[in-house]
Amino acid sequence: MTLYAKLLEREKQGNPIRVGVIGAGQMGFGMISQISQIPGMAVKGISDIRIEAAQRAADAYNATATVKENILVSNDFKEVIHSDEVEVIVDATGVPEVGAKISLETLIAKKQIVLLNVEIDITIGPLMKKLYDAAGLVYTGSDGDEPAATFELYEFAKAMGMEVLVAGKGKNNKLNITANPDTAKDEAARNKMAAHMLAAFQDGTKTMAEMNLLSNAIGFVPDVTGMHGIAGNVDSVIKDLDTKERGGILNKYGVVEYVDGLAPGVFVIVKGQNEGVIHEMNYLMKKGNQEHHILYRPYHLASLETPLTIAKAVLNHEAAIAPLGAPISETVAVTKKDIKAGERLDGIGGYCVRGVLETHSDMKKENHIPIGLISGNVVAKRDIKAGTFLTTDDVELDQSTTVWKLRKLQDETFANEDNKTPILV
Questions:
Q1: Three-state SS across the chain?
Q2: Which residues, at least 6 apart from 332, have a Cβ–Cβ distance to it below 8 Å?
Q3: pTM, whole model, 2 decimals?
Q4: CA-CA distance, 138 to 320, in Å (whole number)?
């Protein structure tokens, strides 16, 4: 039975999937609006630190839903997580510390979790996946976000027996490594976004985090720290994202990458494994005689696709995307500006740091700090120049935060697996 057929059956039974949403910003609001139109699914609880945002989302849901719901609205996410009316939780906050608390609380409540919070997934996802598995629960990233959309193409190609050489996404915003909430304010207002969220897109952190999640899910790594980030189109990248020996820029295959010019799409570059497949690919793709081809999805629908993940988690006990095991890549903190000794650092999308992707082994070797740990009261120990990859010699991390404690547990849990780099085959 298809996913849609299963949803129709739940609708017919009067037993919709009961969803609780934490975070009613742009992503959360869009997803809640979409669920109002989906059979066999209902929003039963919404939490946001701004109670008016949660209420606005609840009102918008009931304004268009066929069946009006008595939605629990709260500024305390624990109320929604532990509500008997809710069976699956969506974290749409995008905040590492809040995400850590939500993931832990949802696990305690013995409910499935769907993440629209890549920031927490790249920080403690391997640990949480292990814990959720042990509890018989689904821990998953979201369909529609670039990592899961790319993962879907990757699995499509691998299931046909193709070799995947590169997997990645188009970047939606021009890279501006010094972007902050002030510089992003006007554009964010026009797009009805939070300024810090847009700043995280513009300074590259979101792209790094998304490819970090994909890396952890398929075993590919960044070819170089920060990836190459070339400009191109669906034809040019096939040649450019090839090895140096073949006239491209890559040191190796099996890498994640982003391209300026392919947004809002995602892609994989593939190679047929024998002469017959290569011939057929050339015939079908109509791009001349090539050994490599790009499989390209020209869109991703972000939070509007999240209900598909909710349905998969509840009805099929399946994840859209999740870590393979131990961390493979990390998004580490790099300063955007000069910072003075004693200055407090803000986190993702703020004024002080941006994220850069590197391998987990490089992070350990250089003692770099995952950007998700720039949370709480993080203070500079000394003057730090702009463009510095932060280490614990530079800053004092806040060890009282939930995300720090869970990250410490993750490091201990996977200590003996750090030198292993699995690839999903």
A1: CCHHHHHHHHHHHCCCEEEEEECCCHHHHHHHHHHCCCCCEEEEEEECCCHHHHHHHHHHHHHHCCCCCCCEEECCHHHHHCCCCCCEEEECCCCHHHHHHHHHHHHHCCCEEEECCHHHHHHHHHHHHHHHHHCCCCEEECCCCHHHHHHHHHHHHHHCCCEEEEEEEECCCCCCCCCCHHHHHHHHHHCCCCHHHHHHHHCCHHHHHHHHHHHHHHCCEECCCCCCCCECCCCHHHHHCCEHHHCCCECCCCEEEEEECCCCCEEEEEECCCHHHHHHHHHHHCCCCCCEEEEEECCCCHHHHHHHHHHHHHHHCCCCCCCCCCCCEEEEEEECCCECCCCEECCCCCCCEEEEEEEHHHHHHHCECEHHHCCCCEEECCCECCCCECECCCEECCCCCHHHHHHHHHHHHCHHHCCCCCCCC
A2: 355, 356, 357, 358, 363, 368, 369, 370, 371, 389, 390
A3: 0.95
A4: 10
> What does the pLDDT look like over 76-111, one tens digit per residue?
999 999 999 999 999 999 999 999 999 999 999 999
pLDDT tens, position by position, 339-363: 999 999 999 999 999 999 999 999 9
Written as one letter, the residue type at 256 is V
